[in-house]
Description:
Blueprint: E1 14-18, E2 29-36, E3 48-51, E4 56-62
Antiparallel strand pairs: 1-2, 1-4, 2-3, 3-4
Amino acid sequence: MDGRNRSAIRPGMRVRVVRKADQPTGALTEGIVRDLLTKSPTHPHGIKVRLEGGVVGRVKEILDDSDVSA
Length: 70
C-alpha cells in the first residue's frame, strides 16, 4: 500500500518513509507514525509524517499494522 492518501495513514501505523536527505538514493526508514504533517488529502510524492523517533519524511509504504497496538 502506498502513502499518497492521507485517509489511509493514522498515528500508530508502521510505515516506511524517505527522508529529504535520502531522496537521491531512495533509502527508506521504517517507524511508527506520531504526527501527520501534510494537510491536503493527497500528495503525489507521499504524505509527510513525523515518526516516533522524530524522523520526518514522506510515506512510501504502509506496512501491515495488525500487530501494532494503538
